[in-house]
Amino acid sequence: MTTRRLVLTRSAAIVGAASTGLLLPQIVRAQGNKVRVGLMLPYTGTYAQLGVAIENGVRMAIQEKGGKLGGREIEWFKVDDESEPSKGVENASRLVQRDKVDVLIGTVHSGVQMGIQKVVRDSGTLCIIPNAGAHAATRALCAPNVFRTSFTNSQPTLALGKAMVDRGHKKAVWITHKYAAGDEAFEGFRDSYTKAGGTVVKELGLPFPQVEFQALLTEIAALKPDAVACFFAGGAAAKFIRDYAAAGLKGKIALYGSGFLTEGVLDAAGPAADGIITTMHYSDSLDTPRNKQFRLAYATTFRSQPDVYAVQGYDSGQLLVQGAAAVKGDLNNKQALYKAMESAVIDSPRGKWTMSKSHNPVQDMYLRVVENKENKVLGIAVKALADSGAGCKMG
Ligand code: BEZ
After folding, report:
1. Helices (DSSP H) in the chain: which residue ranges?
2. Ligand 1: distance of its center to the CA of 20 in Å?
3. Could you tell me the distance, in angstroms and rounded to a whole number, from the CA of residue 321 to the centre of ligand 1?
4. Which domains does the chain have, with CATH numbers?
């Protein structure tokens, strides 16, 4: 609170002085300084691979536009948040208070995001969320300085329920890591599935980041639902897919998921992943020049295939490039910066998207199936899906 007041007071003073011409040399000097970009991402643990893909995407988008932001060089600061919610505030404070970053890009895990949200709301630091789907970040706790380039947790699953019922799967078990991401993904699933005529026969869960699935898979076998729907991501998703097949459920009980289940894990999951149907705002096989160009450039630069996390990182970089260009590198010109970011049209590998009023992407949701280690697009499940933004008051 104190810090935010300080920032406002300072910028008000600058506006006053600048209009008299007194502070011009300082402003020019500030613009000559490097832009301080903080990355708060998981580089260890279940979501480590997601953090790396996001960073790759951010750097690639900026590099494609000359490697600068609004004409200014960049100084990078990095923190491994370990997907550990209890350290969220401390880690975000390191970037904001100690490193004095101009923008904090982070993070992946919804619980950690709540720590970042507190720190950036208090300090007024620009924040771009490149993954974490926590509803609150763009609903009740939304803020003018917080923009998300990924999704809300219920967006992908709002597209899933009807696809399952259309395939004749009317009785489902839901299984997830029990924390905000899984619980909010369930909200979207429950709403879309019951609306389409399906029944959720049981909700199962285990604490993040545990991966001892055996007892739960035994329970699913006994329940004999038509289908299973789930939220898992990263290393846990690969293990869940393998364990599901090893338990003899593959081919007997259809497996569906929020698309994170099959993102970045298809090599690790192997043939056990074939046939899994998911919904997501991206698909490897999108047959557009933009996606093909992105995939080729990413694979050439990083010697690995991009996934949805790389796309979200790339779009975070694109959003920052556009915002910084609009204010010619003066990220302290917050009003103009936020206006430019709010009205940005992001030409993404996923398809063009825009920001909702609460700063979350309005985007198409694709229905996909895994075939030969690729998420193949089957069609658009929901066009231009916006999150409700319920309770968001930009103030
Ligand atoms: C989350 O915690 O919000 C999350 C993590 C991985 C994939 C998707 C969402």
Report:
1. 2-19, 24-32, 48-64, 88-93, 110-123, 154-158, 160-166, 180-195, 214-223, 234-246, 266-269, 289-302, 308-326, 334-342
2. 48
3. 25
4. 34-151+288-355 (3.40.50.2300), 155-280+366-385 (3.40.50.2300)
